[in-house]
């Protein structure tokens, strides 16, 4: 047994066995290491894989259910009491909080979500989460506040993205699945105040469109040199540190037994595969296949505006960008995937058939065109790219496409204007349009709907993009089948 008690007995350490702990850690792709030094003690290191964004969140309760509010939007917590300086008042039919001689609009979370545990709400007392969205500040009234916690953000299903109140979901340490509150959606629901927030969101979206500003989650690492390298986090399936003794050499290449399959390993230039200790690996997976990119060190995950200023001069590098104040090489994932499987993008089952759907991808960024085109080809779509909205319109008038994918933040003619032009053309109006943007806010989604978008997907949400494409092309495929049957 294993025990941390100061004084041990014959029954110490008879709780959950360490083998059970290791089994559960292994099941989620983590590792557990124990190091002992005689006369000093033992250290236990548990590493859990990071596959999505991690944010700090405040866990609150409403009507018996728990919810997470991103701490980035939380200004402070206030306990409102009837006889204190922080008290809930009403102006007409709107609840407000008097806080430091200012009135903040309030909204009860359980009323907003239309959930009721049968308990009567106290109109004058409660816990208030003071939240800021842009320049607007308001309060969310909750039944209880638990603690802050680092959570792994799971994206919303495409079927639920129209719900403004939630931005995702997460699994807590006790196994409970809870929803993540979107403060922008709460602001929108505040009625008149929400309309102001919505207008500010539109203004912010317009600013981003005009300036081209967009942030991306990037995984920063080192490989082959001291210069940092980066890859969009959304492309990485898992981060692993595999024991060096598990790496095998067969048929002239390195590989590892990974999740009951052989996974080939590809080392970046200048990287030597470790012979002892742990080897950091970036795992990329698609359609049942996985490959591991061997690197020297995983440094950090950052949110940064990705602007490739210098084009790549060597294979496997898209170019260089300034990330956290340092010149960083952005790698071309599409270069390394065929090094693991030569037919990664040309597998027989993925070759476009005579009836496969055609997709027009319009994006002014060569980086995103080069990144998305191979992914969509691998999913079985015929892809044509255009660097500007004008060239996209020319392509649409020259041939028929089943779906249009368009970036939002483009110069000259942005994605919203591009969609409006398409909708005004009788020959093109029926073609589904999916918007791609790093700025996925309720205000931007609503503006996309008004412009004529059928769906709105984050640029690095690869599963969400494929799901949206399948949904939009299903109708077109069915119509084609009916046409062929009638013929």
Descriptors:
487 residues, OB fold (Dihydrolipoamide Acetyltransferase, E2P), 6-stranded mixed β-sheet, 30 strands, 24% helix, flat
User: Nearest-angstrom radius of gyration?
Assistant: 26 Å
CATH class of the largest domain: Mainly Beta
Please name the CATH architecture of the largest domain: Beta Barrel
Low-confidence stretches: 192-213, 348-355, 478-487
Average pLDDT rating: 77
> What proportion of the residues is helical, as a percent range?
10-25%
Strand order of the largest sheet: 5-9-10-8-7-6
Class by alpha and beta content: alpha/beta
When the domains are counted, the total is 4
Q: What separation lies between the terminal Cα atoms?
A: 74 Å
Beta-strand percentage range: 35-45%
Total beta-strand segments: 30
Indicate the overall shape: flat
CATH fold annotation of the largest domain: OB fold (Dihydrolipoamide Acetyltransferase, E2P)
Largest sheet: 6 strands, mixed
* Count of helical stretches: 10
Can you walk through the features of this model?
By secondary structure, the protein is an alpha/beta fold. It folds into four domains: 1-50, no CATH class; 54-193, CheA-289, Domain 4 (OB fold (Dihydrolipoamide Acetyltransferase, E2P)); 215-340, CheA-289, Domain 4 (OB fold (Dihydrolipoamide Acetyltransferase, E2P)), CATH 2.40.50.180; 358-485, Response regulator (Rossmann fold). It is built from ten helices and 30 strands. The strands form six sheets. The protein has a six-stranded mixed β-sheet with strand order 5-9-10-8-7-6. A six-stranded mixed β-sheet has the order 22-14-15-25-24-23, with no helix packed on it. A six-stranded mixed β-sheet has the order 16-20-21-19-18-17. Strand 14 (215-222) and strand 15 form a beta hairpin. Helix 4 packs across helix 9 (442-451).
């Amino acid at each position: 047994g294993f025990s941390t008690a100061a004084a041990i007995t014959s029954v110490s350490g008879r709780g959950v066995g360490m083998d059970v702990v290791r089994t559960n850690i292994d099941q989620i792709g983590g590792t557990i290491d124990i190091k002992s030094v005689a006369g000093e003690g033992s250290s236990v290191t548990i590493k859990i894989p990071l596959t999505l964004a991690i944010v700090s969140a405040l866990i609150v309760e409403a009507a018996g259910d728990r919810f997470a509010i991103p701490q980035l939007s939380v200004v402070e917590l206030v306990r409102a009491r009837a006889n204190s300086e922080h008290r809930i008042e009403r102006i007409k039919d709107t609840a407000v909080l008097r806080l430091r001689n200012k009135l903040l609009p309030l909204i009860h979370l359980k009323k907003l979500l239309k959930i009721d545990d049968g308990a009567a709400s106290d109109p004058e007392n409660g816990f208030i989460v003071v939240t800021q969205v842009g320049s607007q500040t308001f309060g969310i009234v909750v039944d209880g506040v638990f603690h802050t916690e680092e959570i792994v953000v799971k994206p919303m299903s495409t079927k639920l993205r129209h719900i403004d109140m939630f931005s995702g979901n997460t699994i807590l340490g006790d196994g409970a699945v809870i929803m993540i509150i979107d403060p922008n959606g709460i602001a929108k629901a505040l009625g008149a105040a929400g309309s102001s927030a919505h207008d500010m969101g539109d203004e912010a979206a317009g600013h981003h469109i005009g300036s081209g500003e967009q942030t991306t989650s990037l995984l920063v690492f080192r490989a082959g040199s001291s210069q940092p390298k980066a890859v969009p986090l959304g492309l990485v399936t898992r981060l692993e540190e595999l024991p060096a003794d598990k790496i095998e050499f067969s048929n002239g290449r390195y590989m590892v037994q990974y999740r009951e399959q052989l996974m080939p390993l590809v080392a970046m230039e200048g990287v030597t595969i470790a012979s002892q200790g742990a080897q950091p690996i970036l795992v990329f997976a698609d359609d049942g296949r996985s490959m591991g990119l061997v690197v020297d060190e995983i440094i950090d995950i950052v949110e940064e505006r990705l602007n490739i200023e210098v084009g790549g001069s060597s294979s496997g590098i898209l170019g260089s960008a300034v990330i956290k104040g340092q010149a960083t090489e952005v790698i071309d994932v599409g270069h390394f995937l065929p090094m693991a499987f030569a037919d990664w993008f040309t597998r027989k089952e993925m070759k476009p058939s005579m009836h496969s759907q055609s997709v027009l991808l319009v994006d002014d960024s060569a980086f995103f065109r080069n990144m998305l085109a191979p992914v969509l080809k691998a999913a079985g779509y015929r892809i044509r790219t255009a660097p500007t909205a004008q060239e996209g319109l020319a392509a649409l008038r020259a041939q028929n496409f089943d779906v249009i994918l368009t970036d939002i933040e483009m110069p000259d003619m942005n994605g919203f204007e591009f969609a409006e032009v398409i909708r005004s053309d009788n020959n093109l109006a029926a073609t589904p349009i999916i918007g791609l943007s790093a700025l996925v806010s309720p205000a931007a989604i609503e503006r996309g709907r008004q412009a004529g978008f059928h769906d709105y997907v984050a640029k690095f949400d690869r599963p969400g993009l494929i799901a949206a494409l399948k949904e939009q092309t299903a109708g077109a495929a069915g119509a084609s089948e009916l046409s062929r049957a009638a013929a």
